[in-house]
Amino acid sequence: MKKTLLLFVFMLATVFAANAQAQLGVRVGANYAGLTGDETSASDRMFRFHAGLISRFYLTTDEFFAIQPELLFSQKGGESEDDDFKIKLSYIDVPVLAHINAGPIFFEAGPQVSFRVGGDIEVNGTNIDDDLDQFKRTSLGYAAGVGFAAPMGLTVGVRYNGDISQLNDDDNAPEYRNSVFMLTLGYMFSGSR
């Protein structure tokens, strides 16, 4: 599955790079992550983080519209109201976003596929489960956000990403879905723009 993902990202980048002006960057920030769904015992949000790579392929000469695939390591999960029960999940998120520049303000939205790469369940600070076979390895979702492009390639933005698919296959288990608010800081390297 990881080889398929890397091949897909490489092919997508190659196709866009051949036909568009490309720009690369990095992104890092805070996640305010929670789990939504029926009867979730981890209904409170908790702070986690994200970091990764951005590529932006301009499809118009005035740089108004671009396609922006990303590869992000993103921590998600949720905790109980009294903080004694926590579900911590780690993903590789691959959003492919439409990016619209409106002056220094930008808008972005699009689909996202997430690959679970780790996680654990904690009770009273003790790890009780780090296998997490009850959660799917892959989930489908969406992302949407707004931000500000500052001079010299810096960007700051807010984004929401959520799951469309539930996190488990068990019909008797509660229907959990990731729900994440992101505060993100980015830097776009000057490249072929």
UniProtKB/TrEMBL annotation:
SUPFAM superfamilies to which the protein is assigned, alphabetical: OMPA-like
Keywords: Signal
Signal peptide positions on this chain: 1-22
Outer membrane protein beta-barrel domain segment(s): 21-161
Domain of life from the UniProt record: Bacteria
InterPro entries, per database record: Beta-barrel_OMP_2, OMP/PagP_B-barrel
Name this polypeptide is given: Outer membrane protein beta-barrel domain-containing protein
Species: Pontibacter flavimaris
